[in-house]
Task: structure prediction
Amino acid sequence: MRKNNFQFTIYNLQFRKQKHVINKKKLQINKYIFIVLLTFLSVCVFAGAGDYGTDSIFAAGTGARPLAMGGAFSALANDSSACFYNPAGLENNEKQQIAFLHYPLLADTLYNSITYSFPILDFGAIGVALYRVSTHNIQAYDSSDFALDEIKYEQYKATIAYAKRVSGRFIIGVGINIISFSMLNVNAYGFGADFGAIYELFDFLSVALTSRNLVNPSLTLQTMEETLPREYIAGIAVKIPVNPINVYIVSDICLPQDANLKIKSGIELSGFDLLSLRAGYDGDALCFGAGINFMGASIDYAYLLNEYFGGLSRFSVAYNFGLTLEEQKIEREKALKEQVKKIIEQEFKKKELAKAKEYFDKAFSLYKSGDYENALSELDRAFEWNEDYADAKQLKELIVKKLVDKYYVKGVEYYNKGEWMNAYENFKNVAEVDVNYKDTKKYLILIDKKIKLTGDLKEYFSKGVELYVNRKYEDALEVFNKALKIAPDNAMIKTYINKTKAQIAKVSGGKKITPEQAEKVKKLYYSGLKSYTDGDLERAIAVWKEAIAINPEDIKILKSIEKAQAELTELKKRGIK
Result:
């Protein structure tokens, strides 16, 4: 506070708190003007030689870490204490942090603070701080040494700060301060503002400018006004990495409004993200300290060699939590990718339905003309685009029922000729519609006896044929290969494997690819699917295009390419690579 701004009338007054008594002979004060003596005594703790009464009572700041480095923290400020030392430093906080400070002063007076910082992606960083200086149960006496009522003294300061990186290396910040003073029956409030800037010249070197109380808070105390002094600070911070130890060397040049220039300096050695040692000089006294970090929590201690009151200790605890800016970016991109995927999925379902309807219309036309076999082929194409297409399923049931008798007759013919596989296949087609149709069940049992398959081999073969007649060729091939492992020399299973591979190799135009090419396409499809699942859309598209160059009519791969390209385009529009 500014020196000698308060006018006092004459009273002889004594302050006592428990057993501690402060005497001021012949200090006279009007009964209706509150007593500010304690405020000045508290200020003595923070003011340097020659600066008595010129520092704010909140000049002690917040956090034991900065104090142990001599208070030279304007260019290094990278935790929630930046609310006080340089609001621009909030942008350098890696995570959210909440910190508590406890600072016992003389005569049971306490100085406490709580700070909170929150870096927000693409917005900047916010910080909140609350400071409190208090002494209670002060026994007051008049000039005749008669006891008066006990009084209490409290002063609060609240700060709301914001920081923003305006370019790659330049950060600015501002803090809005509200100050409250309460003593006897007098309350006073004031508002002010701080400004700070940090410029990162190199990765290892930062400089800072700070103006504390750039907008001076003024407290109106009855008929008097008290204005807190402005202070200008220029700082520098150098980081020297000496693996596994980081060394920070800091210095601030401070020019208070009504006091002499001060140079503050400090050093911090931190290793293994666990232990820190600190020392500094605040322009008047030496400071020392240490800190321990573990699982996001930290405990810091500072010791100040005060000229008047001896050693003063300060303790602070902090906890870091939440996501770093990089983690926030990753999470945002994940959320956007999921959002884009859902949007594209919805749009693509409409395209799939339209394409499936196109093939359904062809199948329906063939059905009406009696060309049931080709109608089923067109329905298969429709199912490749939309396997849940209800109209196509109903039409397939109608067509298969039309073909049941035809399949049954063929099955009987093949059976009488001893062509067990062809007979089995046709009777399976009938069984898909109605296993009790005529003698279908009997013929299937007879064929099972003829081909002499038992146990798992019989189950695999039966399932494979069932998948084959339903045109699920890739699934059928997988089952037939399991059967072949049980009976490697079974000619019938080998025949079905070759038939299935041939069906897989077919393309719509009647062209064929070799079984080796079909296998390569399959491998490329799953390779691309892995890249797609990992979020590498460009890689997935490139792999699928390699597969489509071999088999241009593979609908599954064409769908995958189209969907991935739509997602990639949408993500790029949103600035995500």
User: Anything to note?
Assistant: Residues 508-577 form a domain with the Serine Threonine Protein Phosphatase 5, Tetratricopeptide repeat fold (CATH 1.25.40.10).
